[in-house]
């Protein structure tokens, strides 16, 4: 018999065997990667270095030419010192001409804005009734004088009493008093200038009735003016009577007028802690007028041996003041040239288009006085005038 048992036939399985990685092969791969990275980074570094050198060589061969500038030398000199203030000009003599009595204007003897002398007639008020009264009083005086003479003759001859003489004397005295009173009233009605000065705008017309004290015209003496200003109490030790004062006004740009302190208020204001000061100013050309705003500089003793430079040499910025100092320097080819260095400075007073330098510059330093806007630190320059620069070894230093 044949057995029904099935014999399963199994195909043999294929086994894939992995080759183990040795340590030597791993090290080799790491070395290869390191070499590749080194070559990459080295090439990149070399490329960047080459590019930077090329750019530097390009700009080195295309440097801008030196900038023309004006140069001035810092010098040591005396610097004037001032105490500054703000003041107002006032008239030394100013009045509003007005009549002392009422009356009607019959004559006007002046024009608005005219210059008059003291005693010059300005306005005549109607004095016809007063002139008539004057004639009457003079006649009364004459009659009283004659009666007095007759009474005295009678008294000497014992033909008349003393009382008659006394009565006639009283009548004569009364008549003379009335004459003087009327003459004074007539004089009051002829209004005259009280002093030399400039007349303002006329405020009356012929035929107009004016009251006592009514304005006719202003009269101002412009030959002398007062300059009124205040100073802090700390400045009291710095001022004295007769001290020179320089006055400037917007009405006369660029001009300075000489004055002198004439009055110092003998007290300090308790509110402002300031001292009132008055200076007297000669104004022969009438360039200044009362009421004008004035810049005051009280002259103080000058400070000796202070360093000054032209005002245009200082560059004023929000970061501080500075100047460009010129220095000699050789270029790459050995040629002499000049460069500028920006130097911070501390400035002091300004005067006559100059600036006092407190810090940063020494006497003899050469500074750029114009053309700073085109400069930066280390820029090459050439002065517009060759004589503006001197060899560095001849520059005096302190």
TrEMBL record:
<feature type="domain" description="CusB-like beta-barrel">
    <location>
        <begin position="227"/>
        <end position="300"/>
    </location>
</feature>
<keyword id="KW-1133">Transmembrane helix</keyword>
<protein>
    <submittedName>
        <fullName>Efflux RND transporter periplasmic adaptor subunit</fullName>
    </submittedName>
</protein>
<dbReference type="Pfam" id="PF25917">
    <property type="entry name" value="BSH_RND"/>
</dbReference>
<dbReference type="GO" id="GO:0015562">
    <property type="term" value="F:efflux transmembrane transporter activity"/>
</dbReference>
<dbReference type="InterPro" id="IPR058792">
    <property type="entry name" value="Beta-barrel_RND_2"/>
</dbReference>
<dbReference type="InterPro" id="IPR006143">
    <property type="entry name" value="RND_pump_MFP"/>
</dbReference>
<feature type="domain" description="Multidrug resistance protein MdtA-like barrel-sandwich hybrid">
    <location>
        <begin position="93"/>
        <end position="216"/>
    </location>
</feature>
<keyword id="KW-0175">Coiled coil</keyword>
<dbReference type="GO" id="GO:1990281">
    <property type="term" value="C:efflux pump complex"/>
</dbReference>
<keyword id="KW-0472">Membrane</keyword>
<comment type="similarity">
    <text>Belongs to the membrane fusion protein (MFP) (TC 8.A.1) family.</text>
</comment>
<feature type="coiled-coil region">
    <location>
        <begin position="134"/>
        <end position="192"/>
    </location>
</feature>
<feature type="domain" description="Multidrug resistance protein MdtA-like C-terminal permuted SH3">
    <location>
        <begin position="307"/>
        <end position="371"/>
    </location>
</feature>
<dbReference type="InterPro" id="IPR058627">
    <property type="entry name" value="MdtA-like_C"/>
</dbReference>
<feature type="transmembrane region" description="Helical">
    <location>
        <begin position="26"/>
        <end position="47"/>
    </location>
</feature>
<dbReference type="Pfam" id="PF25954">
    <property type="entry name" value="Beta-barrel_RND_2"/>
</dbReference>
<dbReference type="Pfam" id="PF25967">
    <property type="entry name" value="RND-MFP_C"/>
</dbReference>
<keyword id="KW-0812">Transmembrane</keyword>
<keyword id="KW-0813">Transport</keyword>
<dbReference type="InterPro" id="IPR058625">
    <property type="entry name" value="MdtA-like_BSH"/>
</dbReference>
